[in-house]
Specification:
By secondary structure, the protein is α/β, with parallel strands linked by helices. It folds into two domains: about 210 residues, UDP-n-acetylglucosamine1-carboxyvinyl-transferase, Chain (Alpha-beta prism), CATH 3.65.10; about 200 residues, UDP-n-acetylglucosamine1-carboxyvinyl-transferase, Chain (Alpha-beta prism), CATH 3.65.10.10. The strands form six sheets. Strands 17, 18, 19, 20 and 21 form a five-stranded mixed sheet that branches. A four-stranded mixed sheet has the order 22-23-1-24. A hairpin with a 5-residue loop joins strand 11 and strand 12. Helix 1 runs parallel beside helix 7, helix 4 runs parallel beside helix 6 and helix 6 runs parallel beside helix 7. It is globular. The model has no long low-confidence stretch (mean pLDDT about 95). The structure holds uridine-diphosphate-2(N-acetylglucosaminyl) butyric acid. The site of uridine-diphosphate-2(N-acetylglucosaminyl) butyric acid (EPU) has 24 residues, from helix 1, helix 6 and helix 12.
Length: about 425
């Protein structure tokens, strides 16, 4: 176990490159199960969640070489029952069920683990699979799935679930009949998975929209693919620049994936400057004001739930009241207690809504994080607080942010990892 020690008060300055998108890399790694041919994935973030998905891939029998940010996967899987212990480490392991059904027409998986940010059921996954003709046997300890026959399928997702859409894509890519997914999630990471499946041989129409039409093939090909940039990491760095009154240039971004966070930052008077479609400069020029409307998470292209925790920290530095609303996750806002402990003026209205009254100077604290995104939000809070903060369980942040302490140090942050 390790922790971060952070001395606040230094503005972040300099250049930083955004990593590959965590939530694209995870389903793409699962997609390599669908072929026996070699796959080469570039721009894969070296984060703990990726390592967990790789460990499952190896357990299934694949050979994996991970050098720098390139992941080479070869060989065939030898069974369809991944280790329960590995599956329980990460919620995205549920994506192996779609991939195993695609490759072997069967799979057995333990209930997945993951960050505790609220009740996270698998109803939509179950709807997707049964809608495609899969026979499911979900018990408290195992999920068994078998696909007896291929069929044409029309799926209407009652919720536009990201990983359920991805599971449907993983299976549909191997089914020669037609699958239609209506009310599909259309986040950039879902599109990135669809794009790699097309390169592997599936025909997919409607990528980037909420209606996907898929005609697959049992024999998918090997592929070389560059994972799309992580829009959540990019948004996190934009917020960190403003909170620390810094001036940073963020490279390797996709401008159009940052439209909504940029909209709110503009409302607050921050004015991020896009140099081109892949680079943005964010500099603090004047005190921020509370946005003139509430910050509410939305399905893509709305404001991403995974950016809400850093956004709450940013609103502590904006003059006036901001209502922040995350209707997706029941526990997303629980970390606000920790910000209140640091001196923030936040009224917690209910599990989904907080009103932040800024501007407050935060003070250092000994903190621990309930989940990945709250963790990075607390790192940002600590970087602008008076004094030295300690954030326990740094590994939770390592799940989604590559080498975060060194990269922030390169921008001037006083952050140190201490192993215990
Ligand atoms: N939801 C609705 N209505 C909808 C869509 C979603 O109520 O139309 C609710 C769900 O019930 C659930 C929550 O919103 O409580 C998220 O649902 P979803 O099934 O989309 O989440 P997921 O597929 O399990 C992925 C990401 C999460 C991210 C969510 C939402 C991966 C591996 N995980 O999870 O990422 O928060 O989508 O965008 O892609 C993270 O990276 O920190 C993370 C938790």
């Amino acid at each position: 176990m390790s922790k971060f020690k952070i001395i606040g008060g230094t503005p972040l300055k300099g250049e930083i490159s955004v990593s590959g998108n965590k939530n694209a890399a995870l389903p793409i790694i699962a997609a390599t199960v669908l072929t026996d041919e070699p796959c080469t994935l570039h721009n894969v973030p070296r984060i703990l969640d990726v390592m967990s998905m790789v460990a499952i891939l190896e357990d299934l029998g694949k050979t994996v070489v991970f050098e720098s940010n390139t992941l080479k996967v070869s060989g065939s899987i030898t069974h369809a029952v991944p280790s329960q212990e590995l599956v329980r480490k990460i919620r995205a392991s549920i994506l192996y069920l779609g991939a195993l059904l695609g490759r072997c027409r069967k799979g057995t998986i333990a209930p997945p683990g993951g960050c505790v940010i609220g009740k996270r059921g698998l109803d939509i996954h179950s709807d997707v699979f049964t809608g495609m003709g899969v026979k499911l046997n979900f018990s408290t300890t195992t999920y068994e799935a078998v696909l007896p026959d291929e069929q044409d399928s029309y799926l209407f997702l009652q919720e536009a679930s990201v990983t359920a859409t991805e599971n449907a894509l993983l299976l549909a890519a191997t089914v020669s009949k037609e699958t239609i997914i209506d009310n599909a999630a259309c986040e950039p990471h879902v599109s990135d998975l669809a794009n790699i499946l097309v390169k592997m041989g599936a025909k997919i129409k409607g990528i980037g929209t909420n209606r996907l039409k898929i005609k697959g093939t049992k024999k998918l090909k090997g592929v070389t693919h560059q994972v799309v940039a992580d829009n959540i990491e990019a948004g996190t760095f934009m917020i960190a620049a403003l909170c620390t009154k810094g001036d940073i240039t963020i490279k390797n971004i996709v401008k159009e994936h940052l439209i909504t966070p940029t909209f709110y930052m503009n409302l607050m008077g921050a004015k991020p400057e896009f140099i081109d479609n892949t680079t943005v400069r964010v500099r603090y020029e004047r005190p921020l004001k509370a946005p003139s409307r509430k910050v509410q998470v939305g399905l893509w292209p709305g404001f991403p739930t995974d950016l809400m925790s850093p956004m709450v920290v940013l609103t502590t530095q904006a003059e006036g009241n901001t209502l922040c609303h995350d209707w997706m996750f029941e526990s997303r806002m629980f970390f606000c207690d920790k910000l209140v402990g640091m001196g923030a003026n936040i009224t917690i209205c209910d599990p989904h809504r907080v009103i932040v009254n800024g501007i407050t100077q935060l003070k250092a604290q000994h903190l621990s994080s309930p989940d990945l995104r709250a963790g990075i939000a607390l790192v940002i809070a600590a970087m602008m607080a008076d004094g030295e903060s300690v954030i326990d369980n740094a590994e939770l942040i390592d799940r989604g942010y590559e080498n975060i302490d060194e990269r922030l140090r390169n921008l001037g942050a006083k952050i140190e990892r201490v192993s215990s």
